[in-house]
Recover the amino acids of this structure.
């Protein structure tokens, strides 16, 4: 492909450069259409001492957008900085503010992980929106110097039978699977949740984890006057313009008086090419290994606007960029469109002049387009030329790091007290074994508790050969070092229903569940990355939910001793005036010294004893039973006892290390009943259980009290296990025995009911496939 040759005279007459902006101070500009407020536009005037050019206006508008600047959340996110910047293994090597957090996991290894959202693009164009969400988070990990080794996804949809779900679910799942599978990255875990509030606003939260040696860490900055700024990867096209803000492509077709020009229609969702990304990964890792990169930044949200301003802002000088050197897929793009394009699979590097030739050679080896587009200067300004005309001349920090910061008003919703007073514990409940059995079958076949393999079977979970555990296990586990068996475990969790009832407690319950899931496979939980999905920050009730959730996470992480390494905030998730359930997705990463000692989820060995660990209370508000049986949301969520969670995690980890448990599964949605069903169905092995005498059978089966797990203990280790639990003061009770039965395996709840596993599987496995094929 050859670039079009543009007439310099025509360019000079049409481009809105700095000279023209200075000479035409009263020219009307579409600042409101670009999402800027009047005071924000005035602030840009004061920063520049003139009106902005159309390119500067576009750059400020997206970099000051909610997605890029965190202007409504910064005042609350700062609280994460109060947490210690270290884990039980070692210090954080990079934290909040970098492309992704990096932590020491021992033996000279470090891991980097992060979770981000791609919600709105995935609604507009499900396949590409989800696919490019995966691609973007993978490049964040790559930019830190790590090799990406696995991905996860946390998905939220409207009701399974809703027309909107039928449109977006297959495309989103295909996009997540298609992009990750083509990259050769295993998808090792995540969530799929259905709720009315996500109609018209699905959530696509993607996580990636990468591995590196300590010495391979790279940070994003542009330092060293004379160093070259190099753009490499895919060519820049018109896709994704405005993908991270309200910037719309039609804006660039405004009248001449607006100072903007360009084609009348650009796609707002990026178009991904995973095969190019695979080349980009291998090329970038070779560049790192060759030692020819000083700083690097991926081009994600806000494209070149973000990469140039953030690199320059984090450096010690300025940057000069020649925008007309950028390789284009579409020669009709105006300069502001080139700056705003979110075309995928692109990276920007800062390279010393002596290394440029080698840099270019490595890119040529991998057949990756590469162009020197700028250099580091001492001016302290970001200057961008377009065919000899200066279209941007700004202080880079004002674009990248000194945008507006709002302390938006927040207030407890007027109906919150009434919501919490409407407790599910007062609802009619099943009585007797027959009613309990029927309730169990309805719940296991409900969308949120049913088998998700229709989704997860579209993901390659074992590519690369280092996946040790994956869906549907409690956490995904990836081997880091083949010699020692060192590995990492990851889980994501959030119950938006609990967060609606009490966002402070709900966020802590999300943290506790992810922490518990990581411990259930035998790992030591170390650190957190979060993706905070909420409605409009301009709604005081939503901001109250957000502030309470952040406070809950900060306090919870402090008590559990896990730092927050980074994450993402996604606001404006709502349909009309109706916000989604507050959904602060929490990802927890843990470490295993030897992955051979990991613990699986399902029952396998007849005769092993089943123990219930933790305390069960009559906690049914926000539960799946309340949803499925009564379509009810009200009351208070389960109590949070983080000291008990920590003790439970330590018991699970040490019992795993010492070989005292053969299977483990945390209790969460659906309570004990669901945990038993999933543990039996995993390997088609039955169980005979007896419920604690002190508990109402219904409460014992369907309460969603936190801080609980079931484990299978070999008879030979029963005394050692109970002694360990007693010494740690963790409540535990023998619940039953793994029992394949004489004929068809059963889940036999003695004194109440029994149900063949074949009947359970029929109820559990058909829900999602039947809905999709309907």
């Amino acid at each position: 492909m050859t670039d079009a040759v543009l007439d310099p005279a025509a360019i000079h007459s049409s481009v809105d450069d700095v000279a023209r902006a200075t000479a035409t101070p009263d020219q009307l500009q579409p600042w409101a259409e670009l999402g800027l407020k009047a005071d924000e536009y005035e602030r840009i005037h004061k920063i520049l001492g003139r009106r902005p050019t159309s390119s500067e206006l576009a750059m400020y508008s997206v970099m000051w957008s909610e997605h890029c600047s965190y202007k409504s959340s910064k005042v609350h996110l700062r609280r994460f900085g109060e947490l210690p910047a270290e884990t039980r293994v070692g210090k954080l090597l990079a934290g909040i503010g970098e492309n992704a957090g990096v932590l020491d996991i021992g033996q000279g290894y470090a891991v980097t992980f992060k979770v981000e959202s791609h919600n709105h693009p995935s609604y507009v164009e499900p396949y590409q929106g989800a696919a490019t969400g995966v691609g973007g988070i993978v490049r964040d990990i790559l930019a830190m110097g790590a090799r990406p080794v696995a991905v996860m996804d946390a998905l939220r949809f409207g009701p399974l039978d809703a027309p909107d779900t039928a449109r977006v679910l297959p495309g989103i799942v295909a996009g997540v699977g298609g992009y990750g599978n083509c990259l050769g990255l295993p998808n090792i875990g995540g969530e799929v949740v259905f709720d009315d509030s996500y109609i018209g606003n699905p959530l696509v939260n993607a996580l990636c984890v990468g591995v590196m040696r300590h010495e391979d860490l790279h940070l994003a900055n542009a330092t060293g006057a004379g160093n070259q700024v190099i753009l490499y990867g895919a060519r820049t096209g018109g896709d994704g313009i405005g993908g991270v803000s309200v910037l719309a492509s039609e804006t660039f077709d405004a009248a001449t008086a607006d100072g903007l020009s360009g084609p009348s229609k650009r796609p707002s969702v990026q178009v991904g090419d995973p095969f190019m990304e695979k080349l980009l990964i291998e090329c970038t890792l070779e560049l790192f290994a060759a030692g020819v990169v000083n700083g690097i930044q991926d081009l994600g949200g806000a494209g070149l606007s973000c990469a140039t301003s953030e690199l320059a802002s984090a450096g010690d000088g300025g940057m000069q960029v020649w925008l007309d050197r950028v390789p284009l897929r579409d020669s009709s793009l105006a300069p502001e469109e080139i700056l705003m394009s979110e075309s995928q699979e692109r990276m920007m590097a800062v390279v010393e002049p002596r290394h440029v030739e080698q840099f270019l050679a490595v890119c040529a080896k991998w057949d990756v387009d590469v162009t020197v587009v700028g250099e580091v200067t001492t001016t302290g300004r970001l200057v961008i030329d377009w065919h000899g005309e200066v279209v941007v001349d700004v202080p880079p920090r004002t674009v990248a790091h000194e945008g507006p910061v709002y302390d938006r008003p927040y207030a407890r919703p007027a109906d919150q007290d009434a919501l919490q007073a409407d407790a599910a514990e007062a609802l009619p409940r099943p009585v007797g074994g027959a009613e309990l059995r029927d309730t169990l079958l309805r719940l296991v076949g409900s969308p949120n508790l049913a088998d998700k393999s229709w989704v997860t079977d579209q993901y390659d979970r074992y590519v690369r050969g280092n996946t040790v555990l994956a869906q549907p296990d409690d956490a995904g586990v990836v081997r880091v070092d083949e010699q020692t068996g060192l590995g990492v475990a990851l889980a994501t969790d959030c119950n938006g229903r609990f967060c609606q009832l009490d966002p402070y407690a709900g966020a802590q319950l999300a943290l506790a569940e992810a922490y518990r899931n990581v411990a259930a496979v035998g790992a030591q939980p170390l650190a957190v990355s979060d993706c905070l999905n909420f409605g409009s920050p301009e709604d005081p009730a939503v901001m109250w939910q957000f502030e309470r959730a952040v406070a809950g996470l900060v306090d919870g992480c402090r008590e559990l001793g896990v730092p927050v390494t980074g994450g993402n905030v996604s606001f404006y998730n709502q349909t009309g005036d109706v916000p989604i359930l507050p959904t602060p997705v929490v990802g927890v990463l843990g470490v295993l010294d030897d992955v051979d000692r990991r613990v699986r989820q399902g029952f396998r060995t007849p005769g092993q004893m089943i123990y219930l660990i933790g305390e069960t209370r009559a906690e049914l508000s926000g539960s799946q039973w309340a949803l499925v049986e009564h379509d009810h949301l009200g009351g208070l969520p389960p109590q949070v006892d983080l000291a008990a969670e920590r003790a439970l995690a330590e018991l699970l980890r040490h019992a795993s290390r010492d070989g005292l448990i053969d299977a483990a599964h945390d209790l969460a949605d659906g309570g004990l009943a669901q945990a038993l069903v999933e543990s039996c169905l995993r390997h088609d092995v039955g169980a005979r259980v007896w419920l604690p005498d002190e508990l109402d059978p219904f409460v014992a089966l369907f309460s969603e009290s936190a801080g609980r797990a079931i484990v299978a203990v070999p008879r030979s280790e029963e005394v050692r296990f109970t002694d360990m639990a007693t010494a740690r003061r963790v409540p535990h009770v023998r619940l039953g025995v793994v029992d394949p039965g004489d004929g068809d395996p059963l889940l036999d709840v003695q004194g109440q009911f029994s149900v063949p596993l074949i009947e359970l599987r029929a109820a559990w496995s058909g829900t999602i496939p039947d809905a999709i094929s309907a």
